[in-house]
Amino acid sequence: GVAFASTGYLSSGSAVLPKNIVFESAGRVFSAEIYSIFMILCPGLALATSINGLFLILTASVEFVIEDGIFPKFLNRNFGFFRSKPILSTAFYAVSALALFGDWNLETLASYSTLGWLLLFLPLLFVFIRLERRVPRDFDPRFPLPRRFLRFAAYAGIVFILGFAFFLLADLFEQGRIVLLPFFLVSGAVYFLLKKGRGVGAGVGFISGEKMDAFIKSNLSEKNG
């Protein structure tokens, strides 16, 4: 109701609201020509940004899967001066076209893709905090900001990720799209088992404090040596 209340076409206390408040306000404020442009460009921009986000996320994710040997290597083949990947790009374009003409819910795909990346960065921040605590205090990380800021940034990132993930899950639940969450979690577990079964990252697991100390000492000795 903010759009109507701000333009004066509907009182703020009215309980009768149309389904598309912004479009209804634009139809009353703008001329027919500007309204037509508004109706075409705004959804197009939203669709383009959603597809662009999916391309950025899915490209990196699929490249990791290809490097792990689960998908065939030829999909990631480079061609040309700019190291383009036409096979992988064409596959993404085909899936995107299928999504557009098949009336897929791109918002749902974008939400789950974003949720996946948030869950990916969360353990990285926890590992960073553990590493930072074990690095000697006299070690200079050659970073222009103090280590206190690095710790704050890591904790702030964890709070942001958890908060953003909560809002994404709440939105998915409200729209009745939370039913895909078990499939989302199971697919991640299946990928991990496939990766471990192929011997890629078989040692991935909980990193003990002794291993962290050995890793830090080896890196410090290389820098000081």
Automatic annotation (TrEMBL):
Regions that span the bilayer: 34-66, 87-106, 112-131, 152-170, 176-194
Keyword annotations: Membrane, Transmembrane, Transmembrane helix
Superkingdom classification of source: Bacteria
Name of protein: Amino acid permease
